[in-house]
Design brief:
With 271 residues, the chain is α+β, with helices and mostly antiparallel strands. Helix content is 35%, strand content 21%. A hairpin with a 2-residue loop joins strand 4 and strand 5.
Length: 271
């Protein structure tokens, strides 16, 4: 756009010359990836597939809402049953698959405490193998969707990730996998519409709740979630219910006594 056009049309904004150009498809060494693309300060997040840069798409708003609700549910479970750590922020880990090597950055990774490789507080990458990976599908290119539902699925299964969850607000690709004895993923079959994890015993959720996103208070009243949602609230509610039950019993006892006194010709108010 010329200076003359901007002068004659001051309401027209100049084009942003700082838009980042994607390097997806470029061949780079693993060393260059870690040095220049993993800690990329721009808007684009890259994964590395056997030397080729792959752009990791951003999620849309619906996908973000579903993902954040799932993260909240998972954190509640782990606060009650601290058997694992959770990583986010596209933290990467390396998969060695025979002659192929990839560096993937799942939206969410779970590392159980009995995993032989743990993370230090200042680690920027994970040198082990996640026990569970979660990817949130966005309304992106078909090739990017295929990467999550086909390519990464095969890589995670071959690499040994025990469970792989694909969240999709449009329900077209929503699937939950667990690794079978032969090293391939098998879909987790819902029981009465509920997905149960083997990696995290007792962690479960309704498929419909991924869309409905009930609040923590609502889930605290739901039998499905009661044993790991807001445990302090649950304990306080039980205490309050017990006190109320005792008060009701005392009130009923007093009323029965008053009725008996009236039968005997006495006024309870005069005693």
């Amino acid at each position: 756009m010329s200076v003359l056009e901007l002068t004659l049309n001051p309401t027209i904004e100049a084009e942003d010359d700082d838009d980042e150009v994607s390097h997806a498809g470029r061949y780079v060494s693993e060393a260059d990836y870690w040095a220049h693309y993993y800690h990329n300060d721009g808007e684009i997040c890259y994964e590395w597939n056997n030397g080729i840069l792959e752009e990791k798409p951003v999620s849309d708003f619906a996908g973000s809402l579903m993902y954040l609700w799932f993260v909240g549910l998972l954190r509640q479970y782990l606060e009650t049953r601290p058997i694992a750590n959770v990583t986010a922020l596209d933290l990467g880990f390396k998969l060695k698959l025979g002659h192929q090597e990839t560096i993937r950055r799942p939206d969410l990774g779970v590392i159980r405490h009995d995993n032989p490789i743990q993370m230090a507080a200042d680690d920027c990458t994970y040198k082990g193998l996640f026990d569970m990976c979660i990817e949130a599908i966005s309304d992106s290119k078909r090739s990017e969707i295929e990467r999550d539902i086909v390519t990464k699925k095969a890589e995670y299964a071959r690499g040994g990730v025990q469970e792989y969850y694909i969240l999709d607000p449009k329900n077209r690709h929503m699937t939950f996998f667990q690794r079978g004895a032969r090293g391939v993923y098998l879909p987790i079959q819902p029981i009465n519409g509920v997905i149960h994890s083997n990696v995290l015993p007792g962690f479960r959720f309704r498929l419909t709740d991924l869309h409905r996103r009930p609040s923590l208070m609502e889930m605290a009243e739901d039998e499905l979630y009661q044993d790991f949602i807001l445990p302090e609230y649950q304990a306080e509610k039980r205490r309050a219910d017990l006190e109320q039950a005792r008060a009701d019993m005392e009130q009923a006892k007093a009323e029965r006594l008053a009725a008996k006194l009236r039968e005997l010709g006495f006024s309870p108010d005069e005693i």
